[in-house]
Structure formats: C-alpha cells, structure tokens
Amino acid sequence: MAPRPNLNIVPFVSVEHMMQLVLDVGIETFLLELAAVIEEDFRRWEAFDKTPRVAAHSPDGVIELMPTSDGQLYGFKYVNGHPKNTRDGLQTVTAFGILSDVASGYPLLLTEMTILTALRTAAMSAVAARHLARTDSRTMALIGNGAQSEFQALAFKAIVGIENLRLYDLDPTASERCARNLSGMGLSVKVCRSSQGAVEGADVITTVTADKQYATILSDNMVGPGTHINAVGGDCPGKTELHRDILLRSEIFVEYPPQTRIEGEIQQLGPDHPVKELWEVIAGRIEGRRSEREITLFDSVGFAVEDFSALRYVRSKIGVTGLHQGLDLLADPDEPRDLFGMLLRCEKRLKAA
Length: 353
Description:
The protein is of the alpha/beta class. Helices cover 35% and strands 24% of the residues. It comes from Antarcticirhabdus aurantiaca. This is Ornithine cyclodeaminase.
C-alpha cells in the first residue's frame, strides 16, 4: 500500500513568495498568462456557481467573502475595502484566498491575495478592454493613482497595446510616485494637472479611486465618441465615479448583473436598464463594440470567478517554482474517526520530550 500523503500540509504562498513568483515569471508575462486563464474561465461561465459576494458594511469600509465553484474546485477570497486606512499608514485593500478540492473538501492552496488581487483586477480590466476598446487604442487616462494604478497601466500595455499614459490624482504626489515606478517600463507617462487634461484625446479612460461615496470623477462632457471607459473604483453600494448621463450614452458591460446592480455604476440606473454580460462577449455569443464611435463601459466591481482564476493560475505555478511553504493547517488523523486520539498521542509526545 502506498504511504498516505500528508494531507494536513497545505501549500501556502506568503507575500514574500508571491512577490518572488511575480518577479520570477515577469510582471507583464504574469498579467498575460493570468488574463488567458480568466478568459478560459469566462468562456465556461455557465459551469460556475454564482452569487453576489457576502458583504459586511460599516461606516469605515467593507469586509467581503467572494466564493465560487466549478464543481471540481472551490475557491473563496476574503477581502476588505477601507479607504480611510491610508490616513493611518494602512492598505485600503487586503486579501487572502483558498482553493479547495470539491470531492474531499480539503484545501489545496492558501495564498496572500493583496498583491494577487491587484494583478487580477488589472488583468480583468485589460481583458475587457481587449474585447471592447477600439483596436487602435494607444492612449489611456488613469484617474486615481493609488495602489492599483501601476498594475492597471502595465496590464493595458501588455494586453491592449497602450503606449501613452496620462495620470491624474487629487494628490499630485500619488501621480508622481506612479510615474517614477513606471519609469523605464516602456510607457510614455505624463502627469496631468486636471482630470480634464488627462482625458483629452484618450482612447481609454480608467477610473480607480477609493473614496466610499457617490462621486463624479468623470462628467458627461469629458467623454467623447469612441471612448472605452474602465470604471474600477465603484465597487459597493453608495460608491460611484461616473455622472449618470455617461451611463445613458454608453453600451454597458458587466460581470454578474445581480452584483453589479447593487455595487457598480449602474446602481444609479433603474433595475431594468439593459446591460450586457462580458462573458458572452468573450465566449463569442454576443458582439462587443459595434462601431468606432460607440462609447463602451466596463462597469467593473470584481467577481469571484476572477479570483478563482487567479487562485488556479498561482497553483499551477508553485509546483514549478517551489515558491511556497507547507502549512500544517488541517487536523488529519490516520484514523478519521479518532480525532480525540490524535490529541492524546500529542500529549504523550509532549510528556516524552
């Protein structure tokens, strides 16, 4: 009989290992490969369990669980969003995730997902733009230059072909930091003094601000024909970035309508306002952009299938790179019905030591 595997040991990817993994693969290659896995899972969208994320809101922010399963694997992410954290020197968003075997219920992977969420959000944005933006898009305005900004910029460079980046943030030092971080990475970067200046002539506009409030980051007059808007910052009830009139002029694409109608830009519209599901575009079931002058909007709030894709991708990499450690996470006695006996055997070992 083959020896029983140590099922109690779960591969754990720490922050340090995740950073090493991203750098070992290469940031742009990581984004490209992750985008391919996301597209693969979106093409089999109907195989997934789908539910809006479970959210606990407070005046300071939100804590969420994002679960899904394809029947073979189960994944979930724990994530928070606390815009006020930056005042205390803390991250706005932190996260971790688990991927498990549906047949046994045993975890197969535990990983940090703060860095991974930034990567998957950027990859998802660029996947949507690849299907919705004009094919000649080369200039992007990036409004909101916080922790997500560099990831978005590099994803759009690698996946969409963006060459020119225009930055604007209410805090000029954030834009300057972003420009410094992207120096030498193949993008022409300009720091702008106003959001209006940033969006002039832009093919793609990405909004990724953090304040938990109704806001007007883009007004209707700022968006010209043929623009693709990647609205990332509006991701919970009461938090939007776009003027309502922009939505009424745009062809709107979403991840999962029941969630986006609660959390996305379309919470400003009626519950029956027509939207299109991005998975149907990726799967070739419906058309994306229909003309060069059409305004397309990806109302991005983030959905569990994207995190599932990210977990699945990381799991495929750690066996090759070895960038993980074994975590003694599960009580798994040799005799499944003798959990108490496992405790007694531990007691004997401690006394003998």
